[in-house]
Amino acid sequence: MRVLKPNLFILLLYFLFGCKQNSDTAAINDTAAMEVVNQYDTSKSKELIRLILAKEEKDYFNTNCIVEKVIPMYVLANSNVARDVTEKLSIKDNIHLNEQMKLYKQFKLTPDLVPDKSILTQQHFLEFEKKKPFGKSSWVMIEPVCEDGYSYILKPIFNEDYTIAYVQFGNFCGSYCGGGEIQVYEYRNGGWHKARTISSWVA
Questions:
Q1: pLDDT tens, position by position, 69-102
Q2: Measured between alpha carbons, how far is residue 140 from residues 62, 129, 131, 176 in Å?
Q3: Which of 70, 74, 198 is CA-nearest to residue 122?
Q4: Is 190 helix (H, G, I), strand (E, B) or coil?
Q5: 140, 153 in Cβ contact below 8 A?
Q6: Long-range pairs, 73-76, Cβ under 8 A, ≥24
Q7: 193: β partners
Q8: Sign of the alpha-carbon dihedral angle for 59, 124, 111, 190
Q9: How is residue 99 annotated by DSSP?
Q10: C-beta separation of 48 from 192 below 8 A
């Protein structure tokens, strides 16, 4: 059996375990960096959502209820969001886009953002559907709880430097009643400003 010289053995150990340590450290650093980015994203999302809730209070958010998490099929052009965002926000970094889309899909509205509204969860809608009279719309169960219907707002999707945002919001006031918009906001002069409306819907 060939015996490794001490110096060569030490170098081999350093290579094997040193590489693992560097790899682990890099993974930890990547995780820590992502947490910082996500915290910043949460801060900017809440900042813009609060602004929109205040600006649209007498229009789309004049309801006493708001949904915690929007079911994708109910949102205008949701299936084209990634493509739409890439074009409207001129996003070039696919890693950033994928992370934004992940956060967008995971987003749930929290009570600190809407302290004056009742938050409807997906469980509420399942209960409404379960308890509605036979042959009737679930709105007969929703109306006593939400007299003016309910609103929704999705997480803003940001470009790489968080200066442009894509936001969807609106409300439902009945089975065939409601409206909403997709807007682009820009951050300039220390605040968010509505830049343009991409699309809107009304029923």
A1: 986 444 444 457 888 899 999 999 999 999 999 9
A2: 20, 10, 10, 13
A3: 70
A4: coil
A5: no
A6: 74/152, 74/172, 75/152, 75/154, 75/168, 75/180, 76/168, 76/170, 76/180, 76/182, 76/199, 76/201
A7: 186
A8: negative
A9: H
A10: yes
